Amino acid sequence: xxxxxxxxxxxxxxxxxxxxxxxxxxxxxxxxxxxxxxxxxxxxxxxxxxxxxxxxxxxxxxxxxxxxxxxxxxxxxxxxxxxxxxxxxxxxxxxxxxxxxxxxxxxxxxxxxxxxxxxxxxxxxxxxxxxxxxxxxxxxxxxxxxxxxxxxxxxxxxxxxxxxx
Amino acid sequence: xxxxxxxxxxxxxxxxxxxxxxxxxxxxxxxxxxxxxxxxxxxxxxxxxxxxxxxxxxxxxxxxxxxxxxxxxxxxxxxxxxxxxxxxx
Lengths: 165, 89
Hints:
The complex is a heterodimer.
Chain A: E1 7-10, E2 15-21, H1 23-32, E3 44-47, E4 50-56, E5 59-64, H2 71-77, E6 82-86, E7 91-97, H3 101-106, E8 123-128, E9 131-139, E10 142-148, H4 152-164
Antiparallel strand pairs in A: 1-7, 2-5, 2-6, 3-4, 4-5, 7-10, 8-9, 9-10
Helix pairs in contact in A: 1-2
Chain B: E1 3-6, E2 10-13, E3 18-22, H1 36-44, E4 52-58, E5 66-72, E6 78-83
Antiparallel strand pairs in B: 1-2, 3-4, 4-5, 5-6
């Protein structure tokens, strides 16, 4: 592994929620979620192992260690119109690392993944081949990819095929 | 690749988007007062103009939001996008 310049690894299980709500609910949630919520489009914010990924103007993907219970968040949102759905088992995550990771993902992802246009901390929902993914640049040479569970074999086989090319 | 300027995410590739039909069609405020002819017009009849047209688009593989776009139907060129609820520029 140490010799390869490019590798992919599955990330350990984690808790995930999709938070949706209006401006009032999101500002309350930003105070209750330790990592806060990004007000800038397509940006992730994190603190320790807690992360919040901006997916849309009223939608965030929250990531946390397994069995994390967002009690403070639920209390802060009580009585406000919002939706907080546990999607921990709907999707899985893998990481693509190495100096050429952007080049490899570009084979099936139509976005410009150059660091100038897709800097560290940027995240977005997009497509990988025909699969819908959430792409998040965690380091200059690493991308975190969230994909729906049933699309995982498709994504990994497509990646393997691109490596051979 | 054709880029579409999502009002929330910026310039993004066309394949992330879904076409949503003609824009600025208001739902009747008093549906019970509509007769069959008016319902037919509301549900089925759309303009089929040549040139600049206001359309709904959805950034389905992105932020998931609907927005409106001005597109030229002869050249497929996008002349601008704006959020739902904003007047046509």
